[in-house]
Amino acid sequence: MSAHIRYTDTPHKDRDDMRNLRRLAPYLWEYRGRVLAALLFLILARGASVGVPVVLKYIIDDLNAGTHRVLVLPLALLIGYGALRLVGAMLNELRDIVFARVRYRAMRRLSIRVLDHLHTLGLRFHLERRTGAISRDLDRGTRSVSSLLNYMVFNILPTAVEVGLVVGILLARYDVLFTVVTLGAVVAYVVFTLLVTEWRMEYRHRMNALESQANNQAIDGLINYETVKYFNNEAFESRRYDATLHDWEDIAVRTQTSMSVLNFGQGAIIALAVTGIMILAARGVAAGSLTLGDLVLINAFLLQLFTPLNFLGVVYRQTKYALADMDLLFKLLERNPEVRDRPGAPPLRVSGGEVRFDHVDFAYQPERPILTDVDFVIPAGCKVAVVGPSGAGKSTLARLLYRFYEVDAGAVCIDGQDLREVTQRSARNAVGIVPQDTVLFNDTLYFNIAYARPGAPREAIVRAARLAHVHEFIESLPRGYDTVVGERGLKLSGGEKQRVALARVILKNPPILILDEATSSLDSASERAIQYSLREVAAHRTTLVIAHRLSSIVDATQILVLDHGRIVERGTHEELLGRDGLYAKLWTLQQREDYSEGQGRLAGGGVE
Fold this sequence. Notes:
Elements: H1 17-22, H2 25-29, H3 32-65, H4 73-120, H5 123-128, H6 131-173, H7 176-223, H8 225-230, H9 234-287, H10 292-309, H11 312-334, E1 355-365, E2 368-378, E3 383-387, H12 394-401, E4 409-414, E5 417-418, H13 424-429, E6 431-434, H14 445-450, H15 458-467, H16 471-476, H17 494-508, E7 512-516, H18 524-538, E8 542-546, E9 558-563, E10 566-571, H19 573-579, H20 582-604
Parallel strand pairs: 3-8, 3-9, 6-7, 7-8
Antiparallel strand pairs: 1-2, 1-4, 4-5, 9-10
Helix pairs in contact: 3-4, 3-6, 3-10, 4-6, 6-7, 6-10, 6-11, 7-9, 7-10, 7-11, 9-10, 15-17, 17-18
């Protein structure tokens, strides 16, 4: 199963939005006082907003009365009118200030939780995942929390509170018919907006997809500029691009048309509601049961309610997107780690560092066994090498020793302790690795070496670099240890990256060392230069060497030959050559390749 759950524009059948919303509660509980304060400010702000038309009614009634109080009461009411607007604005800003900590703390805590969870998931997940997709899911998921809280606190709740206050005033002061018309108009507006928005979303999604497709085609053609020229396909690229834009144009027109339908429908509902309300109010004024101020009040109430509802379509659409993004995030959190520590598992106790693979069977997929009955011991302080054709299962041994996977049968033990019975952290502390492909962080050389032991003193880091024979190279750089190595260490050569990896392992100082084809990707000159450093690091450590170059393991205590997941030969270098088996064939083949390479360099007059 892919590590990325693809989002489709239709709701997932197994999506539970209410459950996901409930799962947000713990992230809000930390600042429950702020949440309550924000809600209080929200209610007070809406109260002030509703109070503005009420004060306006009394101003109009007093002005219309034409009494001697005109010079006093309207002035007080006008001041009150301005004060209510000022207080409403202030309360809205206070609500934003108080709630900001809640929103961003929830985003921060959820981001940390997801990242921590991703680190607990097994290697299988991370080999299958698409990094860009996971990054988008993480970014969109955490932002969806902020979006949902934003819509709830700044759009949905304020509108609901305002509708409730207006309905309460209308019921208390006026004929029930005014409430019926107002509520009917609000309900009709909401239902119409949601239905049309749902209909429009299909067009919008198709328009976005076609736009992305067109951009991808244009960029792909430009990236492959030379290929386009090789085959004289400029016209073909233009036709392909235009065909997609033709479909995009049709959908874009439909999208704009559907927007016009939405806007017209919303305007028609508002116009009908306001007309109905005005007719009822005007009759009341004519009959003497209502004042001119009542007419203005009721009309203002209705228009005030529809102002936030103008954004209902956008809020509804964005809320759906946010719920879908949040669902992806929570589904990611629901993925169980493949490797778990057993309850109460003790830490690994390393005495000598003996490693034992005890009749191990393992498969990544049940139908394709990788290791079958693999049984060997690396005595403490000794060096055992594993060789064999590609796909024989050599690197899988390193992954099992790091407990990235659980064995299907048998056991992997360190000093007699089954790795399944101890904590993963302690087992990995005991093992260091120089991998075939050293990947560095896009940070400084200092950071990359110190990563093995964060907080280590600078003297220890420099000592590790010296022992790895990389200190002189680092010092020769203009910025020294502060040199940024680039993404995945691309600014360094293969040999330089390997030496940094060596320095990192030296700083970690583990009792058990894995050299996983550490020089296979290097040229002969770099390989010879780094072999001496590898031997120094491996001295007096229990070492598992996964070898590509057989010349680098002739001094191993024992050499294991893997083929199709089984140990088919074992012995010292001399013993295996004497048997004239698979190891001897591999040795002969590599000797011939080395001889041919040397002859080629001599013929070309090249010097390494």
